[in-house]
Amino acid sequence: MRTVVGFVLLGALVMAGCSVPQEGPASGPPSIVIGAGQEPDNLNPILGYAPDGASKIFDGLVDRDAKLKLTPALAEKLPEASADGLTWTAKLRQGVKFSDGTPLSAQDVVFTYKSVLDPKVNSTIASRYDPLAQVEAPDDSTVVFKLKYPYSPFDQTLTLGIVPRKAFDGQDINAAPFNTAPIGTGPYTVNQWRKGDRMVLKANEGHWNKAPAIKTVTFVYITDDNARATRMASGEFDATVLPPRLAQTYRDKSGYRVVQNPSADYRGLGIPSELPFTKDPKVRVAINTGINRQAMIDTVLAGAGKPAATPISPYLAEWYDPAAKFDFDAQKAGALLDEAGWRLGPDGKRAKDGQPARLPILYPAEDSLRKDLALAVGSDLAKLGIDAPVEATKFELMLQRQKETAAVWGGGDPYDPDTAAYTLLHSRYSGQPGYVNMTLYKNSQVDTALDEARKNLDRAARKQAYGDFQKAFIADPGWAFLVFLDHTYVMRDKWTGLEEQVEPHDHGMVHAVWWNLEHWSPK
């Protein structure tokens, strides 16, 4: 039945796409309408909005180019580290103003970072800045960051957007009007935000770099993949993000282009470490060995992805170990389950001491890609004799049930292995709230390797530590990482200036194929 429905939908999209009228001559300032799959909770960098840059509304001290190389932004040149790695100094670019005309000051930078670290604020990105001990401004154009220990990728964290401290005078940061009506230094300003519907951005004509050629950007928020595909086909959008199989319906269609961008964005099955069935590392290795990742890539992703085994993607080439993998072998997986005492019964189901081998799998209801991955995993596990029912739910419930169920999570970035793996797998984050160590995973060898890699400034030593981490994780996996996605987009073929960039997990308003939208022009 699911297959029939899928063909009907694809056929409808093809017909709808063919019926879109050709555009006449452009009139008025250039604008673009984007169908986005994710809506931000707020627009305050302190509270976690766009910490990796590309925010459209804010600038960080640094930015990234198409090759992910750090470039100066609000800093006049790249921040410099002291010989011991404990002090980083940034000099601010002169003449920068916020969109309300207020000049940028080093005190704004200090306020931004101190607020992230403030326990009263309880920022969702505070854990990213664990190495930071203090930030100060010796003068209006100099910012000095002092670290608790050497942390070589600290400059990668300086993409965070800077806010004006005066906007928060007498305000509770978590409830400030700024959170929905921000003031930034970025290439765009927020003209309107109707939550649950759309956000309209206007070009910041006074931007310190260059005013964008596209003067109005409208993001329309639709979490349902099929609804987004239908509205793209009807001509409502100039661009949207779609799962690979839906995007393929636009291949070779006149007036459209399909963009497939590489990413370090993983989808993985978070396996609860405290569940009686999965607390044995041998069972978790069996689960990893019994999952056919390549079949998922070929079918669910229509070829748009790569197999995953750890959160370190192949795009982190210096640190990635290609030997850290799980080869699909259902027979070997079954033998491992037998060794662990989970044996097949006459009904084809496994049990141990009268307890069934059961692993419920949750996924967020509106995400069709995660649904298909969850079903594929459930099918593979069922073939091993594991009862793996699949259930749609919400992210909040996935967190609440993290001790008793597996869940299909996503994350990852191509910037540094520390930001990809540390908070996700280090035991110090086990039991902490939010999207850190959601599987309650604890492994002393993994901890040691991640700590060594985090605090060592020597690249060879870091490389060795990340090799040790990957080896230890494969022997005792806390997840079944499934795939690294290629992100796929459908666009009206009417823009120049697009550049491919390896993308992180976040590809809603920020990053995505429109990561450098401020540099696009109409054809």
From TrEMBL:
Q: Which residues form the Solute-binding protein family domain?
A: 69-430
Q: Which GO terms describe its molecular function?
A: peptide transmembrane transporter activity
- Which superkingdom, per the lineage? Bacteria
A single GO BP term for this record reads: peptide transport
Keyword entries, A-Z = Signal, Transport
Q: Which GO terms describe its cellular component?
A: ATP-binding cassette (ABC) transporter complex; periplasmic space
Q: Which residues form the signal peptide?
A: none
**Family annotation (CDD domains):** PBP2_NikA_DppA_OppA_like_19
PANTHER family, per database record: OLIGOPEPTIDE-BINDING PROTEIN APPA (PTHR30290:SF9), PERIPLASMIC BINDING COMPONENT OF ABC TRANSPORTER (PTHR30290)
The Swiss-Prot or TrEMBL record describes its family as follows: Belongs to the bacterial solute-binding protein 5 family.
Record protein name field: Peptide/nickel transport system substrate-binding protein
- Which species expresses this protein natively? Kibdelosporangium aridum
